[in-house]
Amino acid sequence: MDERAVTCCFTGHRPAKLPWGSRESDPRCLALRQELAMRLEGICLAGYTRFLCGMALGCDTYFAEAVLALRDSRPEIRLEAAVPCRTQADRWNREQQERYRGLLDRCDRVTVLQETYTPSCMLRRNEYMADRSSLLLACFNGSPGGTMNTILYARRRGLQILTIEL
After folding, report:
1. Could you give the C-alpha distances from 119 to 15, 116, 124, in angstroms and in order?
2. CA 142, 143, 144, 150 torsion: positive or negative?
3. Which of 9, 48, 92, 103 is in Cβ range 3.0-4.6 Å of 133 for a Cys bridge?
4. How confident is the model at residue 99 (pLDDT cuts 50, 70, 90)?
């Protein structure tokens, strides 16, 4: 079977583009996390069992946590971390780094695309995920940037796209 047929990748904004920033106790953040969990449940019911996540701060983290929570009740679920560079979290604060490492430890697979940061490594990571998926789940506010670029790339590659509007 073609793994792409059962693989969903994710794109979404970092805290700087979220209306609540890093305040995860904000009701809008809690609502987004609930929406992600609900969408993932539906995606699983549609037959998807493999999930790819870029492991950035913000929406990527929420997605990874939601997939891992779903895996607790659905052991067939697999989460792959698509890490753009080994140094991805080096400039994050200690709490963010610990959360990141905890998520990586729980992933079924960790793919590191390159050793050090380059201006194109995030784009390369996003293309890696889309090239291995048939579905893209996106948390998107309409603004230009990496999330929009990933959606446009996925569209060109023929992926089905589900959007949670922020």
Report:
1. 20, 10, 10
2. negative
3. 9
4. very high
Residue 13 tokens, joined: 């904004």
Among all chains, which residue has been given the structure tokens 């609930």? 34
Q: In order of start, what are the domains of the chain with their CATH numbers?
A: 3-165 (3.40.50.450)
* CA-based torsion, 144, 160, 47, 163: positive or negative: positive
User: Dihedral of the CA atoms 41, 36, 126, 156 (nearest 10)?
Assistant: 70
Give the tens place of pLDDT for each residue, 12-56.
999 999 999 999 999 999 999 999 999 999 999 999 999 999 999
